[in-house]
Design brief:
By secondary structure, the protein is an alpha+beta fold. It is built from nine helices and twelve strands. Strands 1, 2, 3, 4, 5, 6, 7, 8, 9, 10, 11 and 12 form a twelve-stranded mixed beta sheet that branches. β9 and β10 form a beta hairpin. It is globular, with a radius of gyration of 22 Å.
Length: 347
């Protein structure tokens, strides 16, 4: 009887300690969780691997981000950082954990799907394709020393994916740029026909556009497609807001516009998403603009749109053909902080 009692007490203590640990982890800031995950990843690396993965906080590489393919004439990768292809299973698991800390459950699921999608592109384009399509060509970079007392940052990046975070004293001070893309936007044939990795950023925008009156369309619609998202830069460089201000939309349309903004913010963990979304709402609908362009007379009806507020800009393009030759079936979509990403100040 006494033995059973001792066992029960031990199990209770173990349970309480475990519960306390879970509560402690839950109470940590996202920045602190990122430090834990980044240090967990770095602990798996050899000295040579660590040299490839780590950079000074002020290294120029921190703000030189890309979402397009980066390779030389011999088809070797030119991105910096340590790439997945060279990692052990343990190291890859640590990268997955870092990605899950930096993104929401839905955001990390989409990011993983974007990376896996490189395998489909390799099948569609074949060996003669101009670009290397490899799910292992995603790179991890850590800037500075992950801790809760100073400045540091990290990035996971490859074709159609770039997530970037800057942390200061345990708090995330910048969660941008965040770039998600997919080719094809919708798989048109085969066993995965109908699959879409980024449906909400299309469906919500199209629903808003469909709801516009003729007069509203005159204000919102642009004569030319909006330009490509500006990579390798800390500033989005989008100029003054274009299109129609939110105050010129009715209540239901304003809700649709905010739902679209939230779809982008929700790629981030809840606390970061809520903070970003609150900034957008607090700006007031008169300072949030929506602009778009659709070429109805072209195959696939290519289109772009932008949501532009004082502290952020959402950029979306679906104007390129996919790797199966379907027109306008190739998405680029990004969230940028204004005036600059990476926690930088000024214009």
């Amino acid at each position: 009887m006494r033995t059973l009692l001792r066992v029960s007490v031990v199990l209770l203590v173990v349970g309480l300690v475990g519960a306390a640990a879970m509560v402690g982890q839950a109470q940590k800031s996202t920045g602190a969780k990122m430090a834990d995950a980044a240090n967990g990843f770095l602990a798996t690396l050899s000295p040579d691997e660590k040299k490839q993965a780590t950079f000074g906080f002020d290294d120029a590489h921190r703000t030189e981000w890309y979402f397009t393919p980066q390779q030389d004439k011999e088809k070797n990768p030119t991105r910096k950082g340590l790439r997945l292809e060279k990692m052990t299973d343990k190291q890859k698991a640590a990268v997955t954990e870092l990605l899950k800390v930096g993104l929401s459950a839905s955001g990390s699921k989409q990011a993983e799907a974007i990376m896996a999608n490189e395998g489909l592109l390799a099948e569609l384009e074949g060996k003669g394709g101009a670009m290397v399509r490899n799910p292992g060509w995603y790179f991890v970079s850590v800037f500075g020393e992950p801790n809760n007392t100073g400045q540091w940052g990290w990035r996971i990046e490859g074709h159609h994916l770039s997530v970037n975070f800057t942390i200061d004293k345990g708090e995330v001070v910048s969660a941008t740029p965040v770039m998600f893309g997919t080719n094809p936007a919708e798989i048109k044939d085969g066993p995965k026909k109908g699959t879409r990795i980024l449906p909400e950023v299309e469906d919500l925008a199209k629903d808003l556009i469909k709801s516009l009156t003729d007069d509203q369309k005159k204000a919102a619609k642009q004569a030319k497609q909006l330009p490509e998202i500006k990579e390798k830069a800390s500033a989005a460089g989008v100029g003054d807001p274009l299109g129609i201000p939110g105050t010129k939309l009715d209540e239901k349309q304003q809700a649709k516009l905010l739902d679209l903004v939230k779809a982008y913010a929700d790629r981030l963990p809840t606390d970061l998403a809520d903070s970003e979304f609150k900034k957008a709402k607090d700006a007031g609908m008169g300072k949030v603009y929506f602009a778009y362009c659709i070429e109805e007379d072209k195959p696939g009806k290519p289109y772009t749109y932008r949501v532009h507020g004082p502290t952020f800009v959402v950029e979306f393009l679906n104007i390129q053909g996919d790797s199966a030759k379907n027109p306008a079936n190739h998405i680029h979509s990004g969230w940028r902080t204004l005036p600059q990403d990476f926690g930088l100040k000024g214009k």
